[in-house]
Amino acid sequence: MAAIYAATEDPRFPPVSAGELRTSVIIELTALTQPQPLRAQDRKTLPALIQVGRHGLIVEGLGTSGLLLPQVATEWNWDASEFLMNCCLKAGLPPDSWLLDGVEVKVFEGEIFEELEPAGKVRRKATGEG
Q1: Phi-psi region of 128 (alpha: psi -120 to 50; beta: other; left: phi over 0)
Q2: Cα(53)–Cα(102) distance, integer angstroms
Q3: Do the beta carbons of residue 70 and residue 58 sit within 8 Å?
Q4: What sign does the dihedral 88-83-71-40 (CA atoms) show?
Q5: Coil, helix or strand for 91?
Q6: What is the mean pLDDT of residues 93-110?
């Protein structure tokens, strides 16, 4: 369902036609594990608990949430602190909101599958592969 929305109704992008899906679009799908809360007595130590390239992030709080897939941090060459800040921004929060009580940070992992060509064979993408 999310893929249908992303391809046809996401206001950030023009809609994709059925013909484009068969001829011009290579689909990549990330299957996510169950998110786990990231907890520390001192919230300033949260970046040390994040494994960039392995963990994806969810920031929830103050009536909003944001999610960044594990591959995003490596694609942008972010460290764990930058990853946290950008996930807050994705949620529409100030970048240091992960430090606030009432804002929850969760981690998850993802397994990536991609088409080799439009409407073609699918392969599992290795972790860290660009």
Answers
A1: left
A2: 26
A3: no
A4: negative
A5: coil
A6: 96
Helix (H) or strand (E) holding 68: strand 64-68
Distance, CA of 75 to chain centre = 11
Structure-model confidence comparison of residues 8 and 98, the more confident one: 98
Alpha helices, DSSP H, located in the chain: 2-8, 18-23, 70-75, 80-90
68 phi/psi in degrees, rounded to 5: -130, 130
Q: 35: which 2 tokens?
A: 């998110």
Q: Are 105 and 84 in contact (CB under 8 A)?
A: yes
**Domain segments of the chain as ranges:** 1-32+113-119, 34-108
Q: What is the CATH number of domain 34-108?
A: 3.30.1490.150
- CB 116, CB 122: distance < 8 Å: yes
Structure tokens at 70: 């594990």
User: Which tokens sit at 47?
Assistant: 């970046």
The pLDDT of residue 113: 95
What is the reported pLDDT for 128? Answer: 57
